[in-house]
Design a protein that fits this description.
Blueprint (H helix, E strand, L loop, with lengths): L12 E6 L5 E6 L5 E4 L5 E4 L7 E6 L5 E6 L3 E6 L5 E6 L4 E6 L5 E6 L8 E6 L4 H16 L1
Antiparallel strand pairs: 1-2, 2-3, 3-4, 5-6, 6-7, 7-8, 9-10, 10-11
Length: about 150
């Protein structure tokens, strides 16, 4: 088996993640630019530009349509895998250290580092794209809270 060399990052790598099918490899690095590669030939598909600090981690949706990244620039960003367009940015008061999409890809958990006088924290954010799904979830959570 011939090794595939993927060249593109200018600083050390911090995290690697395969998509569910194993045909895409996502890389995070201290150079601020998460990247996705085709695993069969090592060709770069997209570079995600928008972070201003080291990117520590990432996770990809089950259908490989969205990517979430966590960075030292105190943001977690949601991206379109195919186009590289930034869909949303979650802003925090400390670096985002870890991200993980829940099954169903409607919730994401983000951990932040201790910073200045802030303690580390766990944040759960909703990323549903259909407004009716959000209304149903809020109604369900309200019902569960009352019980």
């Amino acid at each position: 088996m011939r090794p595939i060399l993927m060249k593109g990052h200018e600083r050390p790598l911090t995290f690697l993640k395969y998509n569910r099918d194993g045909d895409l490899l996502f890389s995070c690095a201290k150079d601020h630019t998460p990247t996705v590669w085709f695993t069969d030939n090592g060709e770069r598909l997209v570079t995600y530009r928008g972070h201003n600090g080291a990117v520590w981690c990432c996770d990809v949706s089950r259908d490989s349509s969205r990517l979430i990244t966590g960075s030292a620039d105190q943001t977690a960003k949601l991206w379109s895998v195919e186009t590289g367009a930034q869909l949303y940015s979650f802003n925090f008061d400390s670096p985002a250290r870890a991200v993980d999409l829940a099954v169903g890809d409607k919730l994401v958990v983000i951990t932040t580092d201790p910073f200045m006088e802030l303690t580390s924290a766990i944040h759960v954010k909703r990323i549903a794209t259909d407004p009716s799904e959000c209304k149903f979830l809020l109604l369900f959570l309200f019902f569960v809270w009352i019980i």
